[in-house]
Specification:
Elements lengths: L1 H21 L4 E10 L9 E5 L8 H15 L4 E2 L7 E20 L16 E2 L2 E2 L3 E20 L5 E11 L4 H13 L8 E9 L5 E3 L2 E3 L21
Parallel strand pairs: 2-3, 2-4
Antiparallel strand pairs: 1-8, 1-9, 4-7, 5-6, 7-8, 9-10, 10-11
Length: 235
């Protein structure tokens, strides 16, 4: 029947619309977990980056270090040669893929063909019609950044923060500006804090928090976070 053909066409079209709408995100939400034994008594906070064997000579590592360094600058951290550093800052990061399955109801209008047929609400032209259900599976990716600060002389860990967010983009480099900004916002957090940081994303590709832009990869270094990069004295 013609209605069957229309329905077979309408279902995937409507399902696609649902998927497109679900992908329109105003904010990027990142879960941040911090463990802290930070005294914050020093005024200069001299530090150097520490690398694992796998991170040596890595351009990707150097890129992420620069973004982290830009955020640390807002808290009076000063990057120095390793021999002169009081603190060592280590980075860890990864992306893991998963699959999410979502079932959504799809409503149709009257089942008789006409120039005015269209999917509408649960009430058709001649009364209610039960919905069909569309099940879609799609990939999602969880991006994680860990920042660990230790005292160089003693090896004592003084700050360890992890930032994690999930989206449909498999690229870690696209997620990293959000992760860096979220991980270091309001440094230092208290010990055992778990919170969600929301960074607004506008249509021009800028990440915003309280209207302060953060550059995307290839567009320069991220700006200082609101409430975190005003040149205030170290905590």
């Amino acid at each position: 029947m013609k209605w069957d053909r229309l329905r077979r066409v309408a279902v995937p079209v409507t399902a696609s619309a649902i998927m497109l709408l679900s992908g329109c995100t105003t904010y990027v939400s990142t879960q941040v977990t911090a463990f802290s034994n930070w005294s914050g008594s020093d005024a200069t906070r001299a530090y150097a980056f520490a690398r694992t064997a796998a991170q040596q000579n890595s351009i990707e590592q150097a890129t992420y270090e620069q973004w982290v360094a830009n955020e640390l600058d807002a808290y009076a951290f000063r990057q120095v040669p390793a021999a002169d550093a009081r603190y060592l800052v280590g980075l860890s990061y990864e992306t893991r893929g998963d699959t999410v399955t979502v079932t959504q109801p799809v409503f149709y209008g009257n089942p008789w063909p006409s120039p005015f047929w269209r999917p509408i609400g649960p009430w058709g032209a001649f009364g209610p019609f039960p919905p069909d259900y569309v099940t879609q599976s799609y990939p999602v990716f969880t991006h994680t950044l860990g920042i660990r600060i230790t005292e160089r002389a003693s090896g004592k860990e003084v700050y360890n923060v992890t930032a994690r967010n999930t989206d449909e983009d498999s690229s870690l480099v696209h997620a990293m500006p959000y992760l860096v900004r979220s991980a270091l916002a309001d440094f230092p957090l208290a010990n055992g804090v778990v919170r969600t940081v929301r960074l607004r994303y506008d249509k021009h590709g800028a990440v915003l928090t309280n209207e302060v832009p953060v550059a995307r990869p290839g567009a320069g270094a991220p700006a200082a976070a609101s409430g975190a990069g005003t040149g205030a004295a170290p905590k």
